[in-house]
Amino acid sequence: EEKTGALRMRQDELEAARIDLERKASDLEQASHYKSEFLANMSHELRTPLNSMLILSKMLADNSDGNLDAEQVESARIMHDSGRSLLSLINDILDLSKVEAGKMGVALETVNVSTSLNALLQRFRPLAGERGLKFTVRIEPDATRELETDGARLAQILSNLLSNAFKFTHEGEIELLAEKAQLGAVPAVALSVRDTGIGIPAGKLDRVFQAFEQADSSTSRRYGGTGLGLSIVSGMTTLLGGQVKVRSEEGKGSTFTIVLPERSPQSQTATTTAGPP
Ligand code: ADP
């Protein structure tokens, strides 16, 4: 009698605790949603005035009337550069909050792998020249030629990875590589950015994809950056139905790989439902 009573009380306590936990989890989710929404709105409001400042400081820096002296032109140029850094930070926060709030749209299209990678080659070639780094694209013969994905997001992911590779590599080479891959049973392509840069300590490797994480707190002072780039890469890759991986050896270099399905998960579901049982 007494024992069953005690047991029942335990059960009631457990049930109350469960309900309490569930409520807390839902509150947290709600708060996180508000945070993302706030950041998205805020970022939008910040961009408008910043854009006017950028246009005006650019006009000053161009000094087309020749009214400014060298020092004033230099000041205007610094103003413009700082404005650009701020804009890219705001854009990163906006992108990340959109991904987190599940508000980032995906526009599926057929993307030619070689065309996309070569466009990035053209874009980053001047930087490679400036930095004295070799920069190449390699597409394995058996790699998928065409992908069904969001081409703009894919370019954004890869250019984030390439920016990092250039930032953290002082000599040697950077390679953009496409290889055949699998995501479980699903045919996929692996797109890698390989560098011969400073590398990441083994203990920090699994944390670099977290927002605001930097492998070395002194790197942020030395290299700048916000620690948002890789969380955006990770969020967007997941959005495209893919996975992101990293291999790195301190002092030797890093390889960041995104594995994307040949066909988007959205349309795969459609094919499965339409196909025979
Ligand atoms: P950010 O570059 O703005 O600091 P990221 O999220 O892009 O932020 O990267 C997080 C951290 O991961 C970097 O601060 C750096 O410590 C490390 N990292 C990223 N890419 C590389 C790379 N190619 N080589 C060495 N370290 C890297």
TrEMBL record:
What keywords does the record list, in alphabetical order? Kinase, Membrane, Phosphoprotein, Transferase, Transmembrane, Transmembrane helix, Two-component regulatory system
| Signal peptide positions on this chain | none
Q: Which residues form the Histidine kinase domain?
A: 41-264
Stretches with biased composition (Polar residues): 264-274
Cellular component per GO?
membrane
- Subcellular location, record wording: Membrane
Q: Does the keyword ATP-binding apply?
A: no
Instruction: Establish whether keyword Membrane is in the entry.
Output: yes
- GO terms assigned for molecular function: phosphorelay sensor kinase activity
User: In its UniProt entry, what is this protein called?
Assistant: histidine kinase
* Source species: Panacagrimonas perspica
Upper taxonomic lineage: Bacteria, Pseudomonadati, Pseudomonadota, Gammaproteobacteria, Nevskiales
Q: Which residues of the full protein are shown?
A: 503 to 779 of 1184
